Every structure is written in C-alpha cells, then in structure tokens.
Amino acid sequence: MSVTVATRPFDGQKPGTSGLRKKVKVYQQPHYAENYIQSIFDSLEGFAGKTLVVGGDGRFYNTDVIQTAIRMAAANGFGRVIVGQNGLLSTPAASHVIRHHKAYGGLILSASHNPGGPDGDFGIKYNMGNGGPAPEKVTDAVFARSKVITAYKTTTTPDIDLTRTGKTMIEGMTAEVIDPVADYAQLMQQLFDFDAIRALFKSGFRMKFDGMGAITGPYAKVILEGMLGAPQGTVINGTPLPDFGGHHPDPNLVHAKELCDTVMLGSDFDFGAASDGDGDRNLIVGRGIYVTPSDSLAIIAANAACASGYRTGIAGIARSMPTSCAPDRVAKKLGIACYETPTGWKFFGNLLDAGLATVCGEESFGTGSNHVREKDGLWAVLMWLNILASTRKSVADIVTAHWAEYGRNFYSRHDYEEVESESANRLMDGLRANLPAIKAAHGLTTADDFAYDDPVDKSHTSSQGIRLVFADGARIIYRLSGTGTAGATLRVYLERYIADPALHGMETQAALQDLIALSRSIADIPGHTARTEPTVIT
Ligand code: G1P
Ligand code: ZN
User: Fold this and answer.
1) Of 167, 243, 269, 388, which sits most exposed with the smallest number of CB within 10 A?
2) What is the enclosing helix (H) or strand (E) of 80?
3) Nearest to 382 by CA among 523, 130, 191
4) How far apart, in whole angstroms, are the C-alpha atoms of residue 46 and residue 130?
5) What is the mean pLDDT of residues 276-284?
C-alpha cells in the first residue's frame, strides 16, 4: 500500500561537489534519507511510468537505503526500478546502465573514497538521463525543496530480494535486479582492443589491481582475470565490504601505499592500478614511476587512437581548472580544444553531450571519456593496458617520452584536512580581498577567483577557486573541498612547467619547493590554520 508520511525539514541537505555526503549516523536519523530522496523526486518532472536506476558502492547502510529508495520510487509513480544485484553498481557502471536502458535517471548511493562503516560516511547522488550528475539548477532545487518538505511517499511493502537477479512487482512498479557487471563489461569490450591486451598478458606482462575492499573488485575480476586472461590473484582486496575492510578507499600514494611500494619499488610487476570506493577514480603506477592523474590524462589523450573506440581521434579534451596544463599541450599539438572547467565531473557533461570533448579528467585521480557521464577508474586502467599492449613500451618509457616531447608539468596537491571551517573561510576571504595586491607583489599574469561560462548552456558558475598564475606559467591554486564531512579541507594545487628534459628527473616536491613556500606565506596558512605542514600530499 502507498502511504504519505509527515516529516519536517532537516538542516543542511545541500548537495556538495558530488551529492549529499554525511556521516552514516546523520543518515540513520529517522526520515533523513527519505526527506532527501523525496526532495529529489519533487524537483523532477515527467517521470511517471519511467525507469529509475538504483545502486551503490556496497558500503554500510547501502542496502537499507536501496530498499527505501525502491519503495519510494514505487509510491512516487516510477514504472520500473533497475537495481544492481546485492545493491551494487559502481558509479561509472550506474552511469552506463542509465544510458543503456534509457532510464529517466538514477540514484547512486556512495560517499566515493570517504571511509565506510557505521562511523564512516554515506551519500546519495542523483544522476540525469544522460548518465551524468544533476546540474546545479537541479541540485539547487533539491536543496530548496529539502528546506520546506512536509511529507514523503512510500509503500508498506516488504524488502525485495536483492541477492538474486530477476523481477518483482511493487505497487504496480517493476523492480528488476540485474547483474551489476555485465552491461559495463560489454561496453569496455567495445572500446578497447581486448585481443591485444590478452596477448600482452600471455607474453608474461604482470600487473596488480587493488580493489581496496570496495566496488571495483567484482568488475576487475570479471574483466581482467576473466575476459583478459590476467593471472588469478591479479586483483587484490577484490571483495566489496561494508567497511572496505578498514581501508580508506582512495587510490592515491598515501592510501594505496602497499600497491605503490610493491609495483614502483619492486621488480615483479610491470603495472599497478587501483580504484576508489565507488569505482570512478584511478591510480596508475609502473615500475619505478607514479603517473600523476594530470599526466595520465595528457598521455591518454595523446595515445587514445591505440584503442578501438577512439581510433578516429578525439574531438577535444576537458580538464578541471586545478588539473595541470599538461593536457593543454597535447590538445594544441592535435589542433583540438582543451576546456577548463570548475572542479567536479558535472561540468564535463554538457561538453561531452555536445561532442565538444571526448576525454576529460581531474587531478583528483579522475579520468574518463564520452562513453559514460562519470569518471571511470577501470576505463582508465584498460586504456593504459591498451596503450601498453599497442606500444609494448614500459609505463616509465611512455611517460618520459611524453615529457621529452611536450615538456613536464611538475604537479602536486597539498591538502590541509579538518581545518576549522571559520578559519578556512577567513583564509579564502583574505586571499579574495587581496588579489590586486598579491598580483602586483608577485608580478602575476592572473590573480582571480575562477569563474566558468558553460559554452553549451551558457550558465555562469563563480567562486571556483583562487588562481595565481606566474609569468612563467607556474600556478598556485587554493580552494576549499566540497566533499568533506568534517570541518573544512583546504586544497593547495602547485604546478610548474619545465621544458628541458635534462631537468625532468627532479623530485616533484623539490621542483616545486619555492612555490610551496610561497603558497604558505601568501595565504598565511600557518596563521589561519595553525598548521605548518599539509596532512596529505599527492
Ligand atoms: C573532490 C575532488 C574533485 C572531484 C570530487 C568528487 O572534490 O577534488 O576533483 O570531482 O572530489 O570525486 P572536492 O573535495 O575537492 O570538492
Ligand atoms: Zn569516487
């Protein structure tokens, strides 16, 4: 039976960079998830009888909210819900399932790389029919609705069996449980040269893929060990667990240290990769080398034609503003545009839909293409495997040859986590107020608060980060994270371009040393945050 339940608004249901992320304990409050889901449905139009995709990264509380979402979808008039078996769908797979099954939209339950478990984080994100995150006009409407909501609709029906594929009827709506991997694996097979990659593995090439106890394990096992013939055991931490086995499922040098040490410092493996909680991020390492996400995007763009799905070339590249300018150099050589967008994958959607960009990426371990409307961890891994299979070069040779051809953009991000919000805001306000003086004092070519005019829908987005650009192209960028759940995280992005190959072997932090010192003094980071060092350097 459908029922209407009275409720009262909760404060702070404002979606951030990527949906509404809160502590599990916040989400566990009675009506909290329901209010947010109803606010989403109330902000959408014309979905009666249509299909909604629902799935998540398997973290603690995932299946509870999935059952709630299914009941609410039925009561709100959706015609069909497609849900991944056991409630699982990686973020890129969810994006593909939405597109492939021509769904109206989808709910992705994830807090990405944030820790899971009862004391960890949870999140809900709404994606549109193009498979991409809802644009700001929708998320703003959801927030506005959440502030005035008085009731939500649900059913009194029992939980459906998520463990088995198949269909169940709920109040006139079909709930269809699907294999979470099949559609996605098929898409990957269309995009990449699986025969060449199989031959690479046959020749003795060895890799490790770290699923970090999160969603990509099942995908990587089917694709790498199953379809591509990589040896059993190639995938480690491959079972999705509610608390990610205690891992912090963020594929970077800090949280994937064991993988990095094994592959980069040892001699047993040619290639190492990892993906995050919900499968959209990627980390790429080779023997003796870590590939920065910015370089990875540039290298993928330069070599995309190795892969069957990109043989005819790419239309354009898009990168987020803080991502290094390495992709711009590739775009210039290819004679295509490189778009600079605010942080967050949602800003790539219009460029991809309009065919202006084919590949896109962010410095935060996100890379992807027009095959879905999310970043895609395994896609990046398969693209690298395809490039390695086609060229039969090592990761290090590919990267150093790329630098020799284009020059090297030394790049690092320094994060100051869990800073008191007021101090972080004061720091940013201080920078904003002093931009003309900072510009003059350091002879900068640009000192601004980045704003973006979308070339497709002409929307304007302001206050996307303080950008200081030096005369030689070096950059310091400051922004506050929009995904954290405790206090504020100050992100400082540092970049310096060096053309001379004789200097490309420098250690990154050494190459950026003076910029690092300047970044701290210009913003008075120690004064505002009482921190002398960042908490995470990537
Ligand atoms: C972070 C990353 C950003 C990415 C987002 C979602 O957002 O910096 O590039 O799109 O996670 O994965 P932030 O916390 O910086 O707002
Ligand atoms: Zn993620």
Assistant:
1) 167
2) strand 80-88
3) 191
4) 15
5) 97
